[in-house]
Amino acid sequence: MRKIIVLDTTLRDGEQVPGAKLNLYEKLEIANQLKNLNVDIIEAGFPASSAGDFKAVEEIAKKVGDKVMITALARAVKSDIDAVYHSVKHAEQPLIHIVLGTSDVHVQKKFRKTREQILEQGVEAVKYAKSLCPNVQYSTEDASRSDFEYLWQTIEAVVKAGATMINIPDTVGYAVPEEFGELIRKINERLKNLNPDVILSVHCHNDTGLATANTLAAIKNGADKVECTINGIGERAGNAALEEVVMGLFLRKDYYQATTGIKTTELKKTSRLVSSLMGLDVQVNKAIVGDNAFAHSSGIHQDGLLKSRDAYEVIHPEDVGVDDMEIILTARSGRHAVKNALAQVGFTNYTDEEFEQIFAKFLELADAKKEVYNHDLFHIVQSTIRRDNAEGPELKDLYELADMQVVINNNFPSASVKIKKGDEILTASNVGDGAVDALYTAIREATGVELNLLEYKLNSISRGKEALGRVSIKVSRNGKNYSSKAIDTDILKASALAFVNAVNMAVVDEMVSKREQAVV
Ligand code: KIV
Ligand code: ZN
Questions:
Q1: Which of this chain's residues are annotated to bind Mn(2+) (predicted)?
Q2: Residue 32 lies in a domain
Q3: Which end of the chain, C or N, has fewer beta carbons within 10 A?
Q4: How far is CA 187 from the centre of its chain?
Q5: What is the CATH classification number for the domain harbouring 233?
Q6: Are 511 and 393 in contact (CB under 8 A)?
């Protein structure tokens, strides 16, 4: 099985996204996580672009470059190559990455030079880089729109000048998988004859959504190395998403006969970190790392999954660091999914007639509120079959947001909450860094549940009429993570309800565990 080298360029191509600029500490945090993910090479920046970028690449090379190879980008000019060398040289294995166009658009229109002049410039750049560092990558920018014979002539010349990696970029996302695969097959055949030690790499952009497909087609046709970014971020429509390429190979090793060294269980964590530090949301249906990537809401699918997970699941959520698949209870869920959710929250002993009453109430609530959560089922069960908790967990332990007030001002945003727990009324008021922080601090204080907020997101839905709040928390007393959502027309209420829902999930989970232990 071939091992494919993975270069991550989140900190270079990814950081080119408008508004996604990171500070030094954020870049170091991401670089460290990329190391945990076990990428082979980190492209840490473009050091000639600014003193800040130079410093960031230098710090990453010093602090993260013990096991992972570190590179940075240079145009084919001496000053850029110097900047790369002096910033990456602190790594155990530094690599200089040079880029120069090969398409006529680049040669004639962008550089206003002849093909011969550009080729000569590329060769000189490689020779200079090679005099500084043994590892040199040469990228033939816009390769997929280049004349093949000129492209090959360039590759041959820069390999003879000392390049150790040849990177074929589909710079503007022009390629299609069959054609790009064929291009890589032809280059690979010639390159392996010229010098079998030179690594053939690809770098694909996603302008028509084909970056992952083109990258995988290249691997199938002999590419040894791929360049990707976390969450597929990058210039314009982005780059090939690392998580998609890696899991594509993981799922279809049989077809690609290739694998990577990526620790796949770190994928979700890495995606979250990049998304939160860069302030770039991941689309909910994004492959592998989107919030809905392992969530099932159709009744037909839920029934199939509960009978046999492989009916609708080809990648296990745990393989990418997601806790479990999610069965979302909506009005489309069937009886099987509702019975399964009831069992999860500790209700198994009911008659068929009682279940039909519960199911009817469930549908009514699902129509009104779109998604039904486990603690909602508690309310339904208790209000429908009116047992005195003989065999179900205790409803009185759940929290309900009874009232809230938020004061937004520049100095002391503050919040007061009133929360019901059974017959008790819990109240708290607090200030925070902002309205949501004040609200969450007050809820934490009122409930007395020690927890850390891992993630908070707010999206507008229903054409902006409603807001969807999402939170993930880690509860200190059991060390477990819980994620929950809530919808409301008021953004602060959606945020508060999502938080209270997540706390209730922890309460329900603990009740069920306690009950299971008591039965054993
Ligand atoms: O898209 C591109 O061509 C690049 C090169 C620098 C590899 O980002
Ligand atoms: Zn690029």
A1: 13, 203, 205, 239
A2: yes
A3: C
A4: 32
A5: 3.20.20.70
A6: yes
Q: Which atom of ligand 1 is nearest to the CA of 13?
A: 8
Per-residue DSSP letters for 4-64?
Answer: PEEEE-TTTTGGGSTT----HHHHHHHHHHHHHHT-SEEE---GGG-HHHHHHHHHHHHHH
Q: Which ligand is nearest to the CA of 73?
A: 1
Q: Which of 278, 307, 334 is the last residue of a domain?
A: 278
The residue assigned the tokens 């993630």 is 455
Residue 226: CB within 6 Å of ligand 1?
A: no
The 10 Å Cβ neighbour count of residue 234 is 28
Cβ proximity of 53 and 76 under 8 Å: no
Examine the domain organization and report whether 196 and 325 are in the same domain: no
Residues 219 and 339 in one domain: no
- Which pLDDT belongs to residue 395? 67
Q: By three-state DSSP, how is residue 76 classified?
A: coil
Residue 17 near residue 233, CB atoms below 8 Å: yes
Shared domain for 266 and 331, answered yes or no, is no
CATH number assigned to the domain comprising residue 406: 3.30.160.270
How far is Cα 322 from Cα 141, in angstroms, rounded to an integer?
36
Residues 414 and 370 placed together within one structural domain of the fold: no
Report yes or no on 39 lying in a domain.
Answer: yes
Nearest ligand 1 atom to the CA of 142 is: 3
Top mutation candidate among 7, 110, 171, 201 for ligand 1, by most atoms within 8 Å of CB: 171
203 lines ligand 1 (CB under 6 A): yes
12, 116: one domain: yes
Mean pLDDT of successive 10-residue stretches along the chain, which has 520 residues: 97 91 95 98 97 97 97 98 98 98 95 96 98 98 98 98 98 98 98 98 98 98 98 96 98 98 97 92 94 89 90 95 88 93 82 93 88 83 64 71 92 93 93 94 96 90 81 93 88 94 89 72
In short, whether 171's Cβ falls inside 6 Å of ligand 1 is: yes
260 lines ligand 1 (CB under 6 A): no
Is residue 393 domain-resident? no
Helix (H, G, I), strand (E, B) or coil at 427: strand
Q: Give the predicted TM-score (pTM) of the model.
A: 0.86
Domain range for 475 is: 398-519
Q: Which ligand is nearest to the CA of 234?
A: 2
User: 143 and 269: one domain?
Assistant: yes
